[in-house]
Design goal:
- This protein has about 425 residues and is an alpha+beta fold.
- It folds into 2 domains: about 40-50 and about 200-410 and about 420-435, no CATH class; about 75-200, no CATH class.
- The protein contains 11 helices and 13 strands.
- It has helices spanning about 40, 75-90, 110-125, 160-165, 185-190, 195-200, 205-215, 260-270, 350-355, 375-395, 405-420, and strands at about 95-100, 140, 145-150, 175, 180-185, 220-225, 235-240, 250-260, 285-290, 295-300, 370, 425, 435.
- It has a 6-stranded antiparallel beta sheet. It has a 5-stranded mixed beta sheet with strand order 2-3-1-5-4.
- Helix 3 runs parallel beside helix 5 and helix 3 (about 110-125) crosses helix 11.
């Protein structure tokens, strides 16, 4: 199937578990309550560092491994601006931007926050990429604080307008000569907002439209039933279908069917094909994630009735039903009804929640209640295969698959620097709202 310029989306949450995963190897089948269980890791956010991560400063956002700081001085602002002007005179263009991180140095020295943001930048740009392989970033200065980025290299030549429309752009996007200059920590924030992510990934209006665009053949689907989840309040059915989009081989498509009503859940456990198309009163939401051509993942969310959403319903439809899911890494949203009782928590949003939850790609489900059209042994092998594909892409970007998730660390850095809380309110179908 030819690669199409569409939303290479993905289910935001873990496949059933956002618990930090210490390695790319899976536990053996039937042992999903050990290293990946909710009991020993759910409150460690995504990097295994402890529940206080969201309240700590950004500088320690990569404490999972030792950091080798970049050598070289951090140039002063005026010198860097002249460097950008000179470089842009020869290398500029409509899809070229200059991404800077020198503002994260308070003393002219390199620091760990800057290293985290470098990794967050390369990961988020490749997470919105339609290119067949990983694109690494090249600095134009000795201190690696200014990067020339051609969005066309990521097959996102037309994305700049949408990026500039993101919240807080006025404080983080400037013009130097003829060059567009963007602060790197904010760019990670902007690209992980559903208001930017979903449009530039060209996500369709219905889940079934995504299936058609990706060429999903449900005759090849294999299913896992899960009674519990780290992110969803009710049980879920998880479906996997192999797909090929060009680029790296071994592509995959996963989606969840997240339930509110127990009778619908039991029907799904017995006959997953019967819940592929549901009516709004059945209250079945969906989280989708699938392999990008470069080895990373794309994300997509649906609410009740198969409609595309920027977020997952955190509250009931018209007060009739309870919500579907929550994100423990967004305590700033102030929700008190939280999965696992881990409050405060936040709204699951496409982009950020998906990228930070799926730190190692596919996450292992907990509380497995059976399978359809497969065995748990086979599903374990497939999950390991999918995780290995993702881990290879991380390594190609210079990111240790076992280290702290850098997009999450970069978002913490931006919020700490700017004072932005990014408190959100639940969206209606399709369009999202950002609280300021």
């Amino acid at each position: 199937m030819a690669v199409k310029h569409i939303a290479w989306m993905s289910m935001l949450f873990s496949i059933s578990n956002c618990t930090p995963t210490p390695s790319v190897n899976a536990p053996q089948a039937g042992n999903f309550s050990s290293a990946y269980s909710s009991e020993d890791g759910a409150d460690k956010n995504i990097d295994g560092s402890g529940a206080s991560r969201s309240k700590k400063g950004a500088a320690d956002a990569s404490d999972a491994t030792a950091v080798d700081l970049v050598a070289g001085p951090v140039g002063n602002a005026s010198a860097l601006q002249e460097l950008i002007k000179t470089d842009a005179a020869s290398n500029g263009g409509q899809s070229v931007i200059y991404v800077t991180i020198d503002h994260l140095s308070k003393d002219g020295q390199q620091n760990e926050t800057m290293d985290v943001v470098r990794k967050g930048l390369v990961k988020v740009l490749n997470s919105v990429s339609m290119a067949p392989s990983i694109v690494n970033l090249q600095a134009i200065d000795a201190g690696k604080t200014v990067y020339r980025v051609n969005l066309a290299d990521f097959k996102q030549a037309g994305a700049l307008g949408r990026i500039k429309s993101a919240a807080y752009a006025q404080d983080n996007v400037s013009t130097v000569g003829n060059a567009t200059v963007i602060k790197g920590d904010w760019l990670v924030y902007a690209l992980s907002r559903p208001e930017v992510y979903d449009p530039i990934m060209k996500l369709p209006q219905l889940g079934r439209m995504l299936d058609a665009q990706l060429g999903v053949d449900y005759s090849k689907a294999k299913y896992i039933n899960a009674e519990q989840s780290e992110v969803a309040f009710g049980g879920r059915v998880l479906a996997r279908v192999p797909i090929e989009l060009g680029g790296k081989s071994g592509g995959y498509y996963w989606r969840s069917y997240d339930f509110v009503r127990d009778d619908v859940k039991q029907r799904g456990f017995r006959d997953p094909a019967s819940i592929r198309t549901t009516q709004i009163p059945e209250f079945v939401a969906g989280e989708f994630f699938f392999s990008l051509p470069n080895g990373l993942q794309g994300y997509y969310l649906t609410g009740f009735g198969d409609q595309h959403r920027y977020d997952v319903p955190a509250f009931g439809a018209g007060g009739i039903s309870p919500g579907v899911a929550s994100d423990s890494r967004r305590p700033q949203d102030g929700l008190t009804r939280c999965v696992g009782g881990k409050k405060p928590c936040g709204i699951v949003i496409n982009g950020e929640s998906c990228m930070t939850c799926h730190a190692s790609g596919i996450n292992f489900p907990t509380s497995v209640a059976g399978t359809n059209n497969t065995t748990m042994d086979e599903m374990t092998k497939l999950i390991n295969q999918d995780r290995a594909r993702f881990a290879t892409a991380l390594q190609e970007m210079g990111i240790d698959p076992n280290a702290a998730e850098p997009i999450y660390g970069t978002l913490n850095a931006f919020r700490a620097r700017s004072g932005v809380t990014d408190k959100r309110v639940q969206a209606s179908e399709v369009s999202g709202l950002t609280g300021r």
